[in-house]
């Protein structure tokens, strides 16, 4: 629950600060009114209003599942609202597809990157452009993209392949791609999650350049308070699909924002740091493991985790965290070293054997790796218990028992 506890502290004063002049902004450039969206069993958005003014960086803040992405997908024509209206540049619009949104000057950089790694930067920018039909004139496109890059002050090697770029550079490719399609309003959904702190600074400074110098308006979706505080002019906070507050950032504090975000005051130093002092439960000894490219991703990792403890593993994405979690879960072999659980050597045990010992694993990519979206909750639960004699009778699954188990899990957690 305390994800922002960590994000609050490091270098909050380091981020480039936006200029918050008293830019009188009479009319919103984008106005959403009464947007409601239901998914089966979930009211993702409930009568949401959003006003974005020209030339501002507008932060949309909310916890996981608050409805931020759904709202952005509606503004970008990817999702149709059940109710509500949109006005863009003073005109009532209805987007049936992202193509419609782009025609009205709205571009989006998605929460998950959507570039083709094996293609060059230029190919990625040009790919799928509505004007590109039939024969592709890459040379003409290159000149256009270069001019655009110069105008916006980007320096990305257009000939580089996307897999060669850092996350920060990939982000710029996505932004350039949106601008190349004529975006005047740029939606960025959680753009900083995979970036290093210096890359975050570069991104924020770049966005400020876009709004100040180029008349671009930015909607910045995030759940990171320091970013909202330093980089936005205005903020709309969503909680459980509802707008709970709209503020000028200059009038907000992190405490106010977090209060609205979670619906109560949050004590920032609430974790009881006294060590629980239980017995060591999970011990890693000189672990080494290779990543998918065959490179050594873990070298000599050792730790001891006691009963009741929370161990934080920090690092920029791609520095071995994922491999470590996989080795602990049994999904990736340890090249050397050992893992002990409750005194037992489990280094060679399968994921199933570890699960039966009581080790659960929630991967970062939950929707791709750990669950099947088209399955019901009961069916997803079944994936973990279909081998359990308690839930099978002569090889036939005990559906009623599994449903009761799912209910028990739901009410317990
Ligand atoms: N296609 C879908 N089908 C069913 N439910 C969905 C779908 N998309 C989103 N939801 C649900 O709608 C709610 C809002 O989700 P959304 O992704 O918009 O939240 P978010 O604020 O972007 O969260 P995060 O910070 O995790 O990105 C969640 O309960 C989510 O499970
Ligand atoms: Mg989201």
Radius of gyration: 24 Å
Structural category is: alpha/beta
Q: Got a strand count?
A: 16
Q: What is the spatial order of strands in the main beta sheet?
A: 6-7-8-3-9-10
In one word, what is the shape? Answer: globular
Number of structural units classed as domains: 3
| Helix fraction bin | 25-40%
Keywords: ATP-binding, Nucleotide-binding
Protein name: ATP-binding cassette domain-containing protein
GO molecular function: ATP binding; ATP hydrolysis activity
Pfam families: ABC_tran (PF00005)
Throw out a few tags for this protein.
413 residues, alpha/beta, Rossmann fold, 3 domains, 16 strands, globular, binds adenosine-5'-triphosphate, binds magnesium ion
Describe this structure in words.
Keywords: ATP-binding, Nucleotide-binding. Residues 30-265 form the ABC transporter domain. One of its GO terms (molecular function) is ATP binding. InterPro entries: AAA+_ATPase, ABC_carbohydrate_import_ATPase, ABC_transporter-like_ATP-bd, P-loop_NTPase. With 413 residues, this protein is of the alpha/beta class. The protein has 3 domains: 3-105 and 184-262, Rossmann fold (3-Layer(aba) Sandwich); 272-370, Rossmann fold; 375-413, no CATH class. The protein has helices at 3-8, 68-75, 98-103, 121-126, 138-152, 167-180, 197-214, 225-231, 254-262, 321-329, 351-357, 366-370, 377-385, 399-412; strands spanning 30-39, 42-52, 57-61, 83-88, 91-93, 106-109, 185-189, 217-222, 234-239, 242-248, 280-290, 296-306, 336-341, 344-345, 392-393, 396-397. The strands form 4 sheets. A 6-stranded mixed beta sheet has the order 6-7-8-3-9-10, with helices on both faces. A 4-stranded antiparallel beta sheet has the order 2-1-4-5, covered by helices on one side. Strand 7, helix 7 (197-214) and strand 8 (217-222) form a beta-alpha-beta unit. Helix 6 (167-180) packs parallel to helix 7 (197-214). It starts with a helix and ends with a helix.
């Amino acid at each position: 629950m305390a994800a922002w506890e960590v994000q609050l502290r490091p270098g909050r004063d380091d981020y480039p600060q936006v200029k918050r002049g008293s830019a009188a902004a009479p009319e919103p450039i984008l106005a959403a009114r009464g947007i409601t969206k239901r998914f089966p069993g979930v009211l993702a958005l409930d009568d949401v209003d959003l006003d974005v003014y020209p030339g501002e960086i507008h932060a949309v803040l909310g916890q996981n599942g608050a409805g931020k992405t759904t709202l952005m997908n509606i503004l970008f024509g990817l999702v149709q609202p059940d109710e509500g209206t949109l006005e863009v540049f003073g005109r009532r619009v209805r987007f049936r597809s992202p193509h419609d949104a782009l025609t009205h000057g709205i571009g989006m950089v998605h929460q998950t990157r959507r570039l083709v790694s094996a293609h060059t930067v230029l190919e990625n920018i040009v790919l799928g452009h509505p004007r590109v039909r039939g024969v592709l004139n890459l040379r003409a496109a290159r000149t256009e993209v270069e001019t655009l890059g110069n105008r916006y002050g980007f320096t990305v090697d257009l000939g580089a392949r996307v897999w060669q770029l850092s996350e920060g550079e990939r982000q710029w490719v996505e932004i350039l791609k949106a601008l190349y399609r004529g975006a005047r309003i740029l939606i960025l959904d959680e753009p900083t999650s995979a970036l290093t702190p210096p890359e975050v600074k570069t991104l924020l400074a770049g966005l400020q350049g876009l709004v100040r110098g180029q008349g671009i308006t930015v909607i910045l979706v995030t759940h990171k308070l320091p970013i909202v505080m330093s980089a936005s002019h205005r903020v709309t906070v969503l909680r459980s699909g509802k707008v709970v507050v709209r503020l000028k950032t200059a009038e907000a504090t992190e405490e106010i924002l977090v209060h609205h975000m979670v619906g109560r005051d949050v004590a920032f130093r609430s974790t009881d740091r006294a060590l629980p002092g239980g017995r060591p439960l999970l011990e890693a000894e000189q672990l080494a493991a290779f990543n998918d490219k065959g490179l050594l991703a873990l070298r000599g990792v050792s730790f001891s985790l006691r009963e009741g403890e929370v161990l934080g593993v920090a690092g920029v994405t791609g520095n071995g965290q994922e491999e470590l979690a996989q080795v602990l879960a049994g999904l990736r072999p340890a090249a050397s070293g050992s893992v002990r659980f409750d005194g037992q050597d489990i280094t060679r045990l399968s994921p199933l054997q570890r699960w039966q010992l009581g080790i659960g694993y929630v991967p970062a990519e939950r929707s791709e790796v750990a669950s099947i979206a088209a399955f019901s909750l009961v069916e997803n639960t079944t994936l973990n218990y279909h081998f359990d004699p308690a839930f099978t009778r002569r090889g036939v699954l005990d559906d009623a028992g599994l449903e009761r188990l799912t209910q028990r899990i739901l009410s317990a957690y």
